[in-house]
Design brief:
Keywords: Hydrolase. The protein is α+β, with helices and mostly antiparallel strands. It is about 25% helix and about 40% strand. Helix 1 runs antiparallel to helix 2. About 30% of the residues are buried.
Length: about 90
C-alpha cells in the first residue's frame, strides 16, 4: 500500500549532509518525495512509497548521517498526488 508522510526533523540537521543523505537512503529504499531545509533550522521531508519502505526511512531519519544530532522527528500522514522521484529542494 502506498503511503505519504510529511516529517519535520529537529536538532543539528542542517550543514551536516542531512538532505543529500536522506535522498540517498530514499533512493535505496525506493521512496519518492523531497527534502528541504527550513528557515527555523529544521529539515522537512515528504516521503511517499510502500508503507514498509516509508517506515524504514522514517526510522532512519532519527539517526540521519554521521554528523547529525536528531532530537525530534514529527510526522503526519498527508494525501497528495503521486510523486515520481526524490529530490533535494
Amino acid at each position: 500500500m502506498v503511503t505519504c508522510v510529511r516529517c519535520l526533523i529537529a536538532g543539528r540537521v542542517q550543514g551536516v549532509w542531512f538532505r543529500a543523505s536522506t535522498k540517498e537512503k530514499a533512493m535505496e529504499l525506493g521512496v519518492r518525495g523531497w527534502v528541504r531545509n527550513l528557515p527555523d533550522g529544521r529539515v522537512e521531508a515528504l516521503l511517499q512509497g510502500e508503507a514498509e519502505a516509508v517506515e524504514a526511512l522514517k526510522k532512519w531519519l532519527w539517526r540521519g548521517p554521521t554528523l547529525a544530532q536528531v532530537v525530534d522527528v514529527q510526522s503526519e500522514m498527508v494525501e497528495i498526488p503521486e510523486i515520481q522521484m526524490f529530490e533535494v529542494r
